[in-house]
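Subject: Protein record for review, amino acid sequence with backbone structure tokens
Concerning: The relation between a protein's sequence and the shape of its backbone.
How to read it: Take the token row as a discrete description of the fold.
Enclosed: The protein record, placed directly beneath this head.
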Amino acid sequence: MKGCKVKDCDIKHHSKGFCSKHYQRFKAHGSTDYKKPFYGATTCRIEGCDTKHYGNGLCAKHYYRWKTTGDPNKTVSGTIFGVARYCEIEGCEEKHFGKGYCKRHYKTWKRHGDPLKYIRRKTGKHLNGEGYVLVTKPNHKWVNRKDGYILEHRLVMQEHLGRKLTSKEIVHHKNGNRQDNRLENLEVKKIHKHHAGSDYHECPKCGHKY
């Protein structure tokens, strides 16, 4: 008669090479060495935890961790108790915040879907919807916007002239490249003369010229 394959167990075979007792242990806990905790336990068996016993010799918190991850010291998110976790982005040594990322990369991932997406605060510049470069100058005397941004081509020309441009003056890009804000590529035009040429665009919905 075929017996249990566990050493020193002479009980007859039930399934998977085990007797009924060892098979149930293996099925429930993944090991035949599991031993049921002492029923008289009153506190959690984890060292340093004096919380009231809940099940399997563990308090409710450690029992839930053990039930979900197989390790009472390991959380569902993968953090191991007592072991610091860091951002998964290569080269980043910031502490973990969420989803495997530090706080900075987590917020970038949440906003853009990519933790490595370009963050404009690194240069203080970005493009607006019309393709012009905006630069951040929050303390500049000619900045009127609350967010501290100003069009770079207007700022370059204003600093060259030493005065603020009027609302009827437009800074024209000679080569048509709106991101080329070198002084030699810029010239001031009156708004009606600028729109009189072929170098302006008109919004198909509202008719606004820019």
Remarks:
- The beta strands are 125-127, 133-136, 149-151, 169-173, 186-190.
- The two ends are 93 Å apart (CA to CA).
- DSSP finds five helices and five strands in the chain.
